[in-house]
Amino acid sequence: MGPGAGELGRLLLTVVLTLPTRPAGSWGARIIGGHEVTPHSRPYMVSVKFEGQHHCGGFLLRAHWVVSAAHCFSHRDPRTGLVVLGAHILHAPELTQQVFGISALIRHPDYQPATHANDICLLKLNRSAVLGPAVGLLKLPQRGARPLKAGARCQVAGWGSISDFEDLPPGLMEAEVRVLGLDICNSSWRGQLSPGMLCTQSGDRRRRGFCSADSGGPLVCRNRAHGLVSFSGLWCGDPKTPDVYTQVSAFVSWIWDVVRGPRPSPLPKTTRSLQESPEPQQHWVYKRDGKRFK
Ligand SMILES: *[C@@H]1O[C@H](CO)[C@@H](O)[C@H](O)[C@H]1NC(C)=O
Ligand SMILES: *[C@@H]1O[C@H](CO)[C@@H](O)[C@H](O)[C@H]1NC(C)=O
């Protein structure tokens, strides 16, 4: 379950002064209602770390390229980030792990922090990943493929937050979820959703989905990355505020343009624009009325 009330104060991401009360465990900082994956069964899973701590997820698209969420890098200098591949238990000295620096961060040019529209970025690794049993690629949806139907089965995976060292997930966690129609989801979110988003629900009465530090990780449907963890409500797994992902199929052309295109502009420029961003934190959690908390 989530961290207890005493531990909440130590959570990096919960500087929430405006909240009246929270039910215990509502900030469960990991995949909700999920289970531990078979080690290395999702070899494309990436952990983006800052200051030695897991910060966000992502997936490996090419040996040099990782796809993640743009909001993961709000007020973070990508030059200080590390990308870990081949992990199952992040803090363990696993021989399968490969660690990289980030040589370029390319955020979607239309990313809007206030609405989370176009919440996607690409990370260029500072050297090539060595592919093998524990490190592999994940495919994008096919260009022009029809959008997923409501009810389609997908899985979301992540390491959740390890900013609370006493509440580590045993290893990479995953949860089975169902695609929720965007219209219904948009109503639940009171019309705040933009095109290029995708929602999921548990599909039954249990709470299942992602939580804060799963951000950037892939929603995998039929072995392709259809979503990137973007935002959800104040209560992780709450069906009243369904989980919202970046709909990857809407960005396939942009992704390939970047990956196959000319060399990205060097990091210092990107970094400067990041630092000018008005967004003070990385993990936005939305309340139903659209107020944001960090
Ligand atoms: C890549 O970045 C990592 C982490 O900063 C560093 O240890 C490594 O030396 C770098 N490798 C190359 C080839 O630049
Ligand atoms: C969500 O609803 C609002 C208000 O009706 C509408 O303006 C917006 O376009 C909708 N978003 C999507 C993705 O349909």
UniProtKB/TrEMBL annotation:
Chain intervals for the UniProt region annotation (Disordered): 266-294
Signal peptide from the UniProt entry: 1-28
KW Hydrolase (keyword) present: yes
InterPro entries the UniProt entry points to: Peptidase_S1_PA (IPR009003), Peptidase_S1_PA_chymotrypsin (IPR043504), Peptidase_S1A (IPR001314), Trypsin_dom (IPR001254), TRYPSIN_HIS (IPR018114)
Keywords assigned: Disulfide bond, Hydrolase, Protease, Serine protease, Signal
Record has Hydrolase as a keyword: yes
Source domain of life: Eukaryota
Domain Peptidase S1 as annotated: residue spans: 31-260
Skewed-composition ranges (Polar residues): 268-280
One GO term (biological process): proteolysis
TM annotation in the entry: none
MF term (GO), any: serine-type endopeptidase activity
Name of the molecule in the record: Serine protease 57
Species this chain originates from: Callorhinus ursinus (Northern fur seal)
Gene (UniProt): PRSS57
